[in-house]
Each structure stands twice: as structure tokens, then as C-alpha cells.
Write a structure and sequence with these properties.
This protein has 391 residues and is mostly beta strands. It is built from four helices and 24 strands. 11% of the residues lie in helices and 38% in strands. The strands form seven sheets. The chain has a four-stranded antiparallel sheet with strand order 1-2-3-4, with no helix packed on it. Strand 11 and strand 12 form a beta hairpin. The termini are far apart. Bound molecules: beta-D-galactopyranose. Beta-D-galactopyranose binds next to strand 5 and strand 13.
Length: 391
């Protein structure tokens, strides 16, 4: 009888969870499992408590032999941030312990990170000089949709937080990209974004490429939405972000404490509509993989290569090939249903980390990790694998 009661009790706990995910047609083969040996692509990824890992759009760092995974803590319903930024820890990248909320939303009305704001794409780095863990993320202010387009800074003495919010801002106010010539700057100053009711005409695109939105936002600072951070071999850190109405990427150098900009920056692919930038370096070449701009819906990835962080960046086709045989047969030209968030180096391998967004239930968005292969010319190729550790 006791056994029966226990079984009924366990079932009563399990049923709402299974129902919730079944509705979304997600494979629930791990449901109820308490220890996870291997999280597989196309399925929920459970932490050591048996819950799907709620850390989206984030990154992973290694500190003193432990990996820390930071990401958006998303509610089951709704698109705003109700808790903050999550952190999980792991010794082996396989079994993840929920370390709670690393940066919490504020209860204070009018605060930049007031509960109900939108925090996206957090990236954390350890700063050896200041001995602080520094977090940058995309912030949208409460009740203002996606119009604020700010970057926010927070820092902590511990990898698991609590992180203290520092400030949020637009970027590079009053500064021109360092590689723009005087005549290019004069040319940009002739543009007027307010004049264009219709986008995507050849004339509008020509003006955009001249730096029309750069000029529009010169005084108040440039927009900053989807973002990543990259630490180069010399220790310099760069903030790479979707700016100018998500039309153009900006690569900006950070100060040594990672809490500000040096003022040195460039535009990449003006008018190219690149989001979700992810970057790595191999054999002295910088590779950047981005998505197009279709909100939560998947689209075809783009790739860029450069010999120098400042460019010139050359655009190449998407590195994705084949179909996601374990996830709805999603094709390569939809990035297997996912959008990148970070490229993590593990020994000599580069792991492309992505989210398969579930806009109806963002907390249930799946994680997709795939190792990057290289063809005979050394060009990145990403093919589907159920198990990201498979060679
Ligand atoms: C995506 C972006 C996400 C989020 C979403 C909102 O394109 O990568 O981070 O901003 O749009 O629609």
C-alpha cells in the first residue's frame, strides 16, 4: 500500500510536467530521470535535479577546473525577464548543477533591470586583472519592447554570483568607426534616416551602407541588441553586437576592466541584417557565424572570415550541411531549427552552442550543441549529431 501511494504521489508530480512538454511535441524520454549521463540534441537537457536547463542565449567559461554556464532564465510563459540570469556548474560539461540566479531582476520601480525588463544573450568573462567576473548582456527596459537596445554591465567576485548591476547604455556615442575616412564620414553626414518610409529599396540600402543609422544615433549612442564577447590571444576583449536596427554589426574594443569601451570600433556587413553573432579563431583566422533576422523563427546561418578582428570580413555560405535527423528533420538552411549563441573551445575542438527557440514557452527552448568540423581547405562545416561529443 505504501509503495502504491508513493507511486501515485510520484506520478501526480510527473504528470503536469509531461503534459506541459507533450503539448510542445518535445521528446520527454528524460522526464523524471534524476541523474543525467548525456544530454542529447533534439531532447530536453536536464540538470542534476531533473529539470530542463533554463540558461538560454548564454555562454560557458571554465574557472579553476569547473565550467559555468550562464544564460537567460526564461519563464514558461511570456517574453519578459521575471528572474534574471541563470548559472549552472559542471565538472564535465555533461552533468549540470543549477547554481540559481546569478543576476537577479530588481524589485525597484523604474530600475534599469526592473522585473519585467528583457535580459538577453548574457556573456560572462573572468577578468584576471580585476579578479572579477564581468557580465555583459542585451537589455530592454520594462514596457518598451525592443526600443531601448542597450548593453548592460554587471560584475561579481564569485562565478555563481550574486552579480551586481552596474549600468546600461547605448554604445560609442559621438564616435565614428576608426577605419572610416574623413570623406566617408562627410558622406554619412549627408544621410537622413527620417526621410525613408520604405526600407529595402536600392536607394535606401545605399544610404544604409554609407552609415545612415550610425549618423542617426551618433549623439545618443549606437543600438546594441544580440551580442557576444570575444577574448583574443593578447587578452583584449571585443564586444560584437547587432546595431543600427539589427542591420549592421559593430565590433568594439573593451577597456581592460571590461566595463567600458575604448572608443575603437568598426562596422561589419552594413545592411546585412546579422544577429546572434558567435566567433572563434583557428589557425590565425577569425570565423564568425551569425543568423539572419527573423525573430524567434529559425533561418539560414551566415559565416564570415577575416585575418584580423577589425576586418576585412568576407562573407561565406552557411557552414551547416544535411538535416537534423533527430529533430523534426530540420534542414541545414534553417540551421537545424536553431540560432547560435556561443562558440566554446574545448581542448582543440570548437563547439557551436545554439538555442532551438520555443517562443510559446521560452523556458522549454532546446539546447543544441554541435562540434565544428573543417573541410580540406580548413573551412568550418557543421553537420547534425545527436551526441555533440561524437567525433
Ligand atoms: C531573435 C534574437 C533573440 C531575441 C528574439 C526576439 O532574433 O536573436 O535574442 O531578441 O529575436 O524576437
Amino acid at each position: 500500500m505504501k509503495k502504491l501511494l508513493t507511486t501515485l504521489f510520484v506520478l501526480s508530480l510527473a504528470v503536469p510536467f509531461v503534459n506541459a512538454v507533450e503539448k510542445e511535441n518535445i521528446n520527454v524520454s528524460y522526464a523524471g530521470q534524476k541523474t543525467v549521463n548525456r544530454n542529447m540534441n533534439g531532447q530536453l537537457w536536464l540538470d542534476t535535479d531533473g529539470n530542463h536547463i533554463n540558461a538560454h542565449g548564454g555562454n560557458i567559461i571554465k574557472y579553476k577546473g569547473t565550467y559555468y554556464w550562464y544564460g537567460e532564465n526564461r519563464p514558461y510563459r511570456g517574453g519578459t525577464t521575471e528572474a534574471g540570469i541563470s548559472v549552472y556548474s559542471s565538472k564535465d560539461l555533461l552533468s549540470w548543477k543549477n547554481e540559481g540566479v546569478a543576476l537577479s531582476v530588481s524589485k525597484e520601480a523604474g530600475h534599469d533591470i526592473e522585473k519585467g525588463c528583457i535580459m538577453e544573450r548574457p556573456k560572462v568573462l573572468y577578468n584576471k586583472k580585476t579578479k572579477k567576473f564581468v557580465m555583459l548582456f542585451h537589455l530592454e527596459l520594462k514596457g518598451r519592447g525592443y526600443e531601448a537596445a542597450r548593453v548592460a554591465f554587471a560584475q561579481s567576485d564569485s562565478p555563481v554570483g550574486p552579480f551586481t548591476f552596474i549600468r546600461s547604455t547605448r554604445i560609442n556615442a559621438g564616435k565614428w568607426p576608426f577605419n572610416m575616412s574623413d570623406s566617408e564620414i562627410e558622406e554619412a553626414k549627408t544621410t537622413d534616416a527620417a526621410k525613408w518610409k520604405d526600407w529595402w529599396t536600392p536607394e535606401w540600402m545605399a544610404e544604409t551602407k554609407k552609415g545612415m543609422y550610425l549618423w542617426r544615433d551618433m549623439k545618443g549612442g549606437q543600438m546594441s541588441r544580440d551580442m557576444t564577447l570575444y577574448t583574443d590571444d593578447d587578452g583584449k576583449v571585443y564586444h560584437i553586437t547587432s546595431s543600427q536596427e539589427n542591420l549592421t554589426l559593430l565590433i568594439s574594443e573593451l577597456t581592460d576592466d571590461y566595463l567600458d569601451y575604448t572608443g575603437k570600433y568598426v562596422m561589419v556587413a552594413p545592411g546585412g541584417q546579422n544577429e546572434a553573432p558567435c566567433i572563434f579563431k583557428k589557425d590565425n583566422k577569425y570565423w564568425m557565424i551569425c543568423s539572419g533576422c527573423t525573430g524567434w523563427a529559425p533561418n539560414e546561418a551566415r559565416m564570415f572570415v577575416s585575418d584580423n578582428i577589425w576586418g576585412t570580413w568576407k562573407q561565406l555560405p552557411s557552414p551547416f550541411v544535411g538535416v537534423a535527423t533527430d529533430y523534426k528533420n530540420m534542414p541545414a538552411n534553417k540551421t537545424f531549427g536553431a540560432q547560435g549563441t556561443y562558440i566554446m573551445q574545448v581542448k582543440d575542438r570548437f563547439i557551436f552552442m545554439a538555442d532551438i527557440w520555443n517562443p510559446g514557452h521560452l523556458s522549454q527552448s532546446l539546447h543544441l550543441w554541435l562540434p565544428i568540423d573543417f573541410d580540406a581547405n580548413g573551412t568550418p562545416v557543421i553537420k547534425w549529431r545527436k551526441d555533440w561529443m561524437e567525433k
